[in-house]
């Protein structure tokens, strides 16, 4: 490809966590947006195809992260730990690693980051309450606490340097809902791609927090504070209604996982070393 | 029917007020949800069909109410006075009777009540204001005041004993709108059934207040605080737009009934004995 | 006294519940405001002194209440049940009786009522939350639910007929705090008198809800929505700080009475007949 | 036409600014609503057709305005200055002229005005914030400030005399979006007509402020406070998505016009005489 | 005075409306803040004393205003019409004149204006409601509407050019309260001076709206959104409590002036020419 | 001391960061609250006196922290990094170390932590805005971001295990204000002690966030959401008014440190390694 004559909106996009579930899916879908998609992960991933670059990178390695960001126009940060783990892993990937990422973004003059936050930053709200992005944080696990750190860090880099970030509080993004709770939290892959597209192409985003969900019937999250992104989900968990009929899932009165928006995550942590 | 092998979501549902307008309609529609539907009213109603039980009951009769609740899994409470009447009738049915009902629910260990409240608990808001379920109460008649009592009583039983209630602030639930005001307040029977279904089957509801309206164009009530119920109306008063065209209904400046959301109810009471 | 030449702000004030704890105290303190203070209770009280009238009255007796209100300029309604009791007593006094009272107020053309509501209409808020008068009701006992009825009924009479009411959500009004919780809820008698005075003499009050507390250091209730009453408490539970030192009252983690603003009231009810 | 037997909802509607872009369009569309449409402008417009009256009028001419309002049932006020100009022009048309208009409305006993306000009364909000009609004013030009005056003046005439006004904060109402910003602010002509119809025919409107936008995907303005108007846009800028693809419009970091909702208007003024 | 060695915080302050009631009072009190106080009015005022300059000026005269602002460091704008008058006078002084003032402030590079707005921008709120600076405008007269214009214009100049303004919504600033209403709205001269001082000397004020009242017992206005000004009133209408005892002022039920915060102003306008 | 007969409210309190500025001060003041005060720091501190224990401890050492918490009744956590430093130091002390602390608190069954958070978690709010504890986080440095982590982590431990924390967003706690900004942010030592006392002895605190400031005239932080703590500051920066007179501190228009509540901290970071 002749880099001197870019024909796509971006010249080079970086996708971290490219080997993960969402990363693998996004890898295919974001190709139309950039001449070159740079793909990164801490583990080996499929080799680069046309219009792709692969750079393995441990986010905890500061110099490697600085190199990783070289020549990048915008970052889709889906890397890091995405489930409850021991604190050390979370700290290295989601805290130290994220700081390295923003340090590099700042030094390289990059202007926008799409940050995969998580609905687990508010997972301790009860399932009987509807919240918006202004509600105080109530994380449901240490992993969720690390995402609170990420939202705060990205806010700081916006206030300090004008680096724009859209924090995506992703619900449950799979091919289809896997249990009754996901009928509420489901984010279809198509809708995730559209949300990332909105976050990337909206002319100005400042520091925006948005919930990543499809157009499901039952809603815990009111997205009106992010209406400026223009995200309009086209998919719904209703497509799978017959698999998890409401009438089959009445939980016991003391079913903690049905009581909080975070579901089973509220019982997942903390994971102590011994 | 062999009660030992229930195949429906609930074994026994109780529907009070089964002889009223909404009760008669619901009687048919809720059959798929329970092996047995127990039907109650203070007046004689059609005899029990298959999967039905009929138990006449005056809510003011404490012992009768206790018996009525025996073996019940959940309650759809559509009984009581539903229009402006003398205070004595309202007190016996909607206050003393409701207390008997919750006492029995508590004693029998029942876990959920669907309570037919009314939009008349907020009927004194002007028609130029849009409110949600957090707005302070402004009842438009003594009947409406009794429904305020019911919402408070059910809140108490939730905070005190964990008994869940969904309060349905029903607008105007008829076959079709009967006047211009009902173009705003119309709740189609189909949508009422769906709302009751959501209230009954959502895994956790805590104490939820929701407005019962169809997807009408003009809205006074913003239901976003109850989005966790997953209620999505499929009907609209627009189906009847030609009967009550907006252009035909300009009221006089001093038309009180057009000024308040409660419409003619604001002038209906109070009814003193003499 | 020559009734043709009144020299005090009001000609005749009615104080109901005049034989209760607060009524007995108020009886002395409100004398300067009216030529005649009519005193009422369901039980025998001290005989009328100069400038006083005594009329025993059961609020559940409709005709008696109508007579009681004859010739009255404004009502201080401290009558009714003020603790958790069986539902029948509460209904007769606080619901049927209150309706009789407002019916009579309406028929007699009286323009203002000071209504002794209670902080127990919001007693199920946790002691770690600060609320104002706009917070949704969370009563902590059936008595509290009956006061919710009263607030709604008085709101109705204001919207319907312009009869003004100030609802006083009284905390704990005694000579002095009797336990650690009352260090927060204490309303000194002097301050109650001042609050009643503000409620009675403020030119326009509409329908106002205000919390009745002294200037205590720890506060659960933010009174700013009632700042138009001009109530400025002069007393504080701090005067009694040494009796209930904060350091002596750390409750057990599962101490329900310390968890909710209503304190022991949350466990007081409901009282069933048998 | 026989004026004694009106068959349309209104007998005579006045449309000011009838020669402007929106006025010319509305002239055709509002005919079904009135026996007679009186058309006014400061400049010569097309002669009156059937059911039309043309009265040229300078809003700054007090007597002329008084005559203009004679016999009118309701006013659609689209006259005045609608872009940034010298202060003198704006003052004469939008401030003095508007006062003349309301004085005449008051004297003639007219009960409703549809006032073409502008989204430029809030144009200095950033494009990354979503607001509703309760947000404090932040005009983006002197023209916008004059519209703030108009909203305040109409509020006064409502509180003082009960004259109802709907303020339409119109976005960009053209045949189609003309630039990327208008993908957010676009108000299709069809939708403007529908919004005017709602504002005119809703039985009671009090003083309502509503945003005039189509059902565009990206939204800066949340219209829920005006849901009582029943306005449901049927058009969307998405129809023109291919002309202004999101991916083509990434602005420079210091692009002021992309930073604020007012777009280039924020740089348009103030226009000083020399 | 040797202008090269200023020893006071400001070199030259401009006080407009210096011949009015508040202007005359302020003239003496602000001397310590500036080497030179320039005094302006449309009518003749007392000649300049030491450290004073007098420049008569009609605010409607654009060139004169430009000269008036020459060499000025900050402006205390107390000029213009301050009561209900014919629209023409109000427009010339408070709208055209104010625009001239801000044009000159902009051209001369002045950085801060203290703008005498008025509580009459919200005078149509009922006396039973407590508001803060975020409440939508509800002016009670045309004069009040002109002050709404001023608040919007000053907001624009802040957003557009960074010119800071503090809008003082002055209540009733006299030597002492003159009637019962002023017991609520009283702003003692000492407190006005202190408020102006805070507005002038707080390092950053942006565009701040604050209510100008003393520490009166009854409050309609909650000033917490302006707490960053550090204004702490030291005076109170309570000093004059015996003159307007609350118990003497019970108004008739239909007393409009007691119903709205604006008092008699709500009936003062509009003043039409004939 | 005979540990079997404790005579003070607590048997053993732990104070971390005991060698720091605030720790050294608190060491003396908290003695009356506990039989034994355990003092900890990463650096050598003054040896234990009567009723004291000294245990040096690096918070990053997990086993050491577990030992440190042994036998402790409540924790005053003033340890960790309290200024902007390199990310590694901050991560070890304020993130990894804090997690160790809460892990140990959990394992040892301790019920309450007083956590020294910082006003720098909201330092990027402008000095012209007044916020309360519900405002979204806007940290002004990486140190501030680490305190955001701490607030989120402590919230999690409360929701998950019921461990109560009071987060103190301390302003500037020194003997006296050191510059003009501290006239706003000053927290006198006496008031800090009182705030810690309230946080420690209030019977129930749940998870409370409170601002630590004295009763200064200028306020950026509204503490009403924490009124249940009963904190009433007795000191004020006004005692030092003559040292930093408001009139001496007018900053340049582009003075960043005067623009944001965080003052010079907004420019302090981030500190990269090279």
TrEMBL record, chains A, B, C, D, E, F:
Segments forming domain NAD-dependent epimerase/dehydratase: 14-172
Keywords tagged on the record: Carbohydrate metabolism, NADP
Record carries keyword NADP: yes
Segment forming the signal sequence: none
Pfam family, one: Epimerase
Keyword Protease listed: no
Source taxon at top rank: Bacteria
The protein's name in its UniProt record: Uronate dehydrogenase
């Amino acid at each position: 490809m002749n880099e001197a004559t870019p024909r796509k909106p971006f010249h080079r996009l970086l996708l971290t966590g490219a080997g993960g579930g969402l990363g693998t899916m996004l890898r295919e879908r974001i190709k139309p947006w950039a001449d070159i998609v740079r793909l990164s992960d801490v583990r080996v991933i499929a080799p680069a195809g046309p219009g792709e670059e692969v750079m393995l990178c441990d986010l905890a390695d500061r110099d490697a992260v600085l190199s990783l960001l070289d020549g990048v126009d915008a970052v889709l940060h889906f890397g890091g730990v995405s489930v409850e783990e021991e604190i050390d892993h979370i700290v290295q990937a989601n805290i130290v690693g994220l700081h390295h990422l923003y340090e590099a973004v700042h030094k390289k003059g990059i202007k926008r980051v799409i940050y995969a936050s998580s609905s687990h930053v508010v997972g301790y709200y009860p399932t009987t309450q509807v919240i918006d992005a202004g509600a105080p944080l109530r994380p449901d696990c240490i992993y969720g606490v690390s995402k609170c750190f990420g939202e705060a860090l990205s806010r700081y880099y916006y206030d300090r340097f004008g680096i724009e970030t859209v924090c995506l509080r992703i619900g449950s993004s799979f091919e289809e809902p896997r249990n009754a709770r996901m009928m509420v939290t489901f984010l279809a892959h198509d809708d995730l791609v559209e949300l990332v597209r909105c976050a990337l192409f909206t002319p100005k985003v400042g520091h925006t927090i948005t919930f990543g969900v499809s157009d499901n019937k039952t809603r815990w999250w009111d997205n009106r504070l992010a209406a400026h992104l223009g995200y309009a989900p086209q998919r719904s968990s209703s497509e799978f209604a017959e698999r998890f009929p409401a009438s089959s899932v009445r939980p016991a009165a003391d079913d903690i996982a049905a009581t909080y928006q975070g579901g089973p995550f509220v019982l997942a942590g903390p994971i102590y070393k011994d």
